[in-house]
Amino acid sequence: MFCIPFPPPPPPPPPPTPPLLAFSNQLFNTPLQPPRLPLLPLAERSDGGASAEGDGGGEEKE
Fold it and tell me: Which of 17, 31, 50, 58 counts the highest number of beta carbons within 10 A?
């Protein structure tokens, strides 16, 4: 006899309503969220890019 306690089955996938609502929220929040999220990666890239561009720009000016 097998007395292995199997974990409970995974919960069923959420209905299509939440994803649609979330997607709608993203559309409404698009002007709010994108600026905040991209700012982090862009800021980091800008710092690195600014240094590279600044060095290159300085050399070109010289």
Answer: 50
Q: Which amino acid, 5?
A: P
60 vs 48: CA distance, rounded Å: 18
- Residue 20 CA to residue 26 CA, distance in Å, equals 10
Q: What is the pLDDT of residue 59?
A: 47
The pTM of this model reads: 0.15
Question: Does residue 7 register a pLDDT over 70?
Answer: yes
Instruction: Name the one residue in this structure whose structure tokens are 């698009």.
Output: 30
CA distance 39 to 21: 25
Residue linked to tokens 């299509």: 16
* Torsion sign (Cα): 42, 48, 49, 50: positive
